[in-house]
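Chapter review: from sequence to fold.
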Amino acid sequence: MTSKKKSPGRPRKISPREERIIHRNVQQPRNTEGTFTVNRLRDECGFHTVPLCTMNRTLKRLNYKYFCEARRKGVLTKRDQLRRVKFARDVLNKHSPQLWTDEICFYLDGVSFWYKTNPVAEAKTPRGKIWQKQNEGLNPLCTAKGCHTGSGGKVVKMFVAICYRKGVIFCEQYEKCDGDYFANFIRRNFRKLFRASGKMHSRLFVQDNCPIQNCVKAWLALKAVGAKLFAFPPRSCDLLVI
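The token string follows.
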């Protein structure tokens, strides 16, 4: 009797070489976009005829999982990292050790308080996901965009100014912030804020890189009141602490 050979089954649609291409191309959209779809990855690899389910299975076979890592900020690129290092060196070389305590008058920020119908459930809800491996943790290439606000439709928006050793020195509620509103806000309040900080000699202040707060109208208003923005590199929310 002749023994029957065991059927090897259907041939794999993704070869080992193509798996390496997928692994290599995962890095690019993570570096530039953060969150991306399998369809987007398939286009990057040039595998237009490969089914999406096959791409999904291949990613999981390569130990990639679709983790939930919600973040509000964008991806920290290599260029951003170089800017952060340059910023740190400039602070050490061009400013005194008392920069944060005696020269920065206040930190201005827009904050929102949202009404949430079910805070516990919404805190557990996935907001943004990223393809990553189990051991990659929260490294810079695994930062996704997300949102921490909840449902309910009720929100209170405020501009808050915080000064070293004095805490909150100003708080104003607003409905909608655009270039005109923020320019008027600067002209109405910044002289009072500098007086309240007790550091009129400096005129330095800190804010984030919100496009509205850094538009042309806002810059003209800052020039009119004699304020000087101590600018931070993009995507450096962890440095915005006085």
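Two observations follow directly from the output. Residues 64 and 133 are 5 Å apart (CA to CA). The two ends are 85 Å apart (CA to CA).
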